[in-house]
Design brief:
Order of helices and strands: HH
Distance between the termini: 145 Å
Radius of gyration: 44 Å
Strand content: under 5%
Number of helices: 2
Length: 103
């Protein structure tokens, strides 16, 4: 290779080096820009999810309170049913007392 062809090759390599340098700068800037946006939006999403989780926990607590109330009412109703379906008997002493009062 002679001097002129080496100088031409060096100019061509300098041009391509500059082009790829610009591409690298654009890539780093893009990565920085979108990385920051990614972090920011991820943070916003986490805040939204934390709020939704808090609301869901409140809903579960309210549902558990309603379940407890319903279970209490069911127990009361079962007690009333048991009282109403229990066979009733009069003891002989009670029968005698009722008969004596009515006589």
């Amino acid at each position: 290779m002679d001097r002129s062809s080496l100088e031409a090759l060096i100019r061509w390599l300098e041009i391509w080096s500059a082009i790829f340098g610009v591409i690298v700068v654009i890539g780093v800037a893009g990565e920085s820009f979108f990385g920051i946006r990614l972090l920011w939006n991820n943070w916003k999403l986490q805040r939204l999810q934390a709020g939704e989780n808090a609301r869901l926990l409140e809903d579960v607590a309210e549902a558990n309170a309603r379940v407890a109330e319903a279970e209490r009412e069911t127990a009361e109703a079962n007690l009333e049913i048991a009282k109403l379906t229990t066979p009733r008997r009069l003891l002989p002493e009670r029968i005698a007392s009722i008969l004596l009062r009515s006589a």
